[in-house]
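Q: Please design a sequence for this.
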């Protein structure tokens, strides 16, 4: 099996005349089709809303596009809140799922009328003191231990810094009710990048049972349950993608089984997906600058870990297509690298690819989420442009490439670099 880039070599050559590589490109049409599938999968739930995790692809053009398709946003910083506000999101279109939250961020979230999702029991007092307790409030649950689906250990919530224990959670709802809150949400994010149709339904089962327990022990009504992110994508070509319609149906079954018979049939289901919404519909396009043969064969690109950090940070796999050589045999073994003075700056290690020539363009797949966003500026390297591919094959610039002046801008208080 192979992954097919959504642009051809000829398209990239044409685009690169105006926007030199490296650049990110996103497929508008596929993004829209995917949002519509998500909405269809949860259409059985009247209050359903997907709050796109802004951190995954914090581009205002993308956020506005998602808003047009009926999505909200999930923010966890002041900048993300302000960007969302400027894109027209307001009130219940914003979920504020932060942790280690500064007071000014709670103040801003409250001012926007966002749903505030508390990460810790101690934040009740903190929020009360800095912004006041809103009428609707959400708390984040951490079940601890390990999270498995069948025999597969998916993740390790017991080691994660997020959320509250069950005891804290129940006490939190009692306190919040005491402090005047009237409507309550439950949030939990316990496994990342799950490539399994069972994750959301299993999590939903846990949270729906929890809702019954909270209702009983804290005497509050739960108005929404936020399944958060964690729905993954197949980064490797031999992985089976998630079927969002099957996922939605799995959640519906748990809903009918647990909530409906207990009088909670009007609970709204929220999601906060980032990766699933964008990752497959973005690619990083780079050009081959050098080939080097020492103890191994190295292909050096004009992009580096500054543009895409996941391989360096997690050893993450990203599939690479050499554009124009889609049908050639992968009979050469390369390390594909960037130019940082840092040996983990490798997009691929011992990857079998077609014979690569200098000047070839490569398409690095599944980088539409947590790709550009994680960028940094090590070695004074600059972030790339972002482009949106339209249905007619033309592109729209949705972020220009960073310049040296941008990099120097934080010295604009003095004339040392003038
Ligand atoms: C990162 C994050 C998400 C999105 O996660 P994905 O794995 O991209 O779906 C959602 N909610 C919160 C609170 C997050 O931190």
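A: Design:
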């Amino acid at each position: 099996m192979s992954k097919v880039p959504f642009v051809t070599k000829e398209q990239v050559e044409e685009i690169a005349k105006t926007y030199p590589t490296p650049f990110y490109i996103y497929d508008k049409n596929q993004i829209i089709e995917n949002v519509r599938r998500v909405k269809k999968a949860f259409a059985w739930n009247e209050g359903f809303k997907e709050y796109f995790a802004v951190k995954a692809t914090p581009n205002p053009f993308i956020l506005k596009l998602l808003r047009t398709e009926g999505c909200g946003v999930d923010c966890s910083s002041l900048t993300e809140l302000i960007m969302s506000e400027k894109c027209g999101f307001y009130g219940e279109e914003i979920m504020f799922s932060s942790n280690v939250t500064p007071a000014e961020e709670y103040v801003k979230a409250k001012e926007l009328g966002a749903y505030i999702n508390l990460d810790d029991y101690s934040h009740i007092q903190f929020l009360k003191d800095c912004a006041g307790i809103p009428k609707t409030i959400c708390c984040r649950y951490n079940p601890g231990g390990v999270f498995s689906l069948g025999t597969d250990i998916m993740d390790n919530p017991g080691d994660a810094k997020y959320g509250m224990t069950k005891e804290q959670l129940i006490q939190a709802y009692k306190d919040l009710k005491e402090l005047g809150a009237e409507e309550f949400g439950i949030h939990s994010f316990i496994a990342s990048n799950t490539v399994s149709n069972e994750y959301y339904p299993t999590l939903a089962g846990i949270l729906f049972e929890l809702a019954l327990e909270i209702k009983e022990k804290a005497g509050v009504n739960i108005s929404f349950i936020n399944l958060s992110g964690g729905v993954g994508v197949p980064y490797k070509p031999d992985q089976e993608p998630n079927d969002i319609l099957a996922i939605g149906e799995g959640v519906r079954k748990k809903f009918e089984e647990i909530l409906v018979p207990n009088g909670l049939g009007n609970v709204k289901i929220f999601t906060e997906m980032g990766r699933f919404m964008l990752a497959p519909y973005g690619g990083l396009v780079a050009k081959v600058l050098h080939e080097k043969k020492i103890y191994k064969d190295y292909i050096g690109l004009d992009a580096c870990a500054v543009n895409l950090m996941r391989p360096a940070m997690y050893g993450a796999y990203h599939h690479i297509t050499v554009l124009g050589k889609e049908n050639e045999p992968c009979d050469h073994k390369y390390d594909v690298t960037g130019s940082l003075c840092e040996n983990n700056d490798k997009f691929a290690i011992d990857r079998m690819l077609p014979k690569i020539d200098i000047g070839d363009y490569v398409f690095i797949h599944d980088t539409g989420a947590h790709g550009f966003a994680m960028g940094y500026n090590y070695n004074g390297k600059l972030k790339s442009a972002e482009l949106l591919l339209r249905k007619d094959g033309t592109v729209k610039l949705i972020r220009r490439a960073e310049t040296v002046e941008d990099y120097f801008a934080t010295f604009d208080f003095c004339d040392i670099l003038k």
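Q: Thanks. Anything notable?
A: Residues 53, 55-56, 74, 97, 189, 192-193, 228-231, 272-276, 369 surround pyridoxal-5'-phosphate (CB under 6 Å). The mean pLDDT is 97.
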